[in-house]
Design brief:
Strand content: 25-35%
Distance between the termini: 39 Å
Family: Belongs to the cytidine and deoxycytidylate deaminase family.
Order of helices and strands: HEEEHEHEEH
Structural class: alpha+beta
Number of helices: 4
Radius of gyration: 15 Å
Number of strands: 6
Organism: Weissella thailandensis
Protein name: Cytidine deaminase
Length: 140
């Protein structure tokens, strides 16, 4: 079993959309990340009625990684709803807030592979999604 399949299966266990409270809905988007040391951490989307309290699955997975291991460098990311990413069918790319957070978490995350198409194992790097990122100038 390859690493993408391991990540997909771990994240899929977190997919069970539903209300947590009358104000919070969760588990409708899931994610798995591979840390620099090869460990896999998962996360799920948490949406609140106030909006500003929302957390995407990718950020929850990254925070889970940091809280549980102290790591900040992410090698790979997969995110999806009810099925694995398929290029052109569903958008599995991190939102702008997640892209920004992942870049700020560790500058090496610019090389993070993000799965675009599960069957074909097609990826894109975070840097390709964030050309001319403002924080790179502070790293020179």
């Amino acid at each position: 079993m390859d690493k993408w399949e391991q990540m997909y299966l771990k994240a899929k266990k977190e997919y069970y959309p539903g209300d947590i409270t009358p104000f919070i809905y969760a588990h409708n988007v899931v994610s798995a990340i591979e840390a620099e040391n090869g460990e896999i951490f998962t996360g799920f989307c948490i949406e609140s009625c106030s909006g500003v309290c929302n957390l995407c699955a990718e950020r929850v997975a990254a925070l889970n990684m940091y809280v549980n291991s102290g790591q900040t460098h992410i090698k790979r990311v997969i995110a999806f709803r009810d099925k694995a990413p398929v290029e052109g069918e569903n958008n599995s790319l991190p939102c702008g807030a997640c892209r920004e957070f992942l870049m700020q978490l560790d500058i090496k995350n610019k090389d993070t592979e993000i799965l675009v198409d599960y069957e074909n194992k097609k990826t894109i790097t975070l840097e390709a999604l964030m050309p001319h990122w403002w924080g790179l100038s502070s790293q020179v």
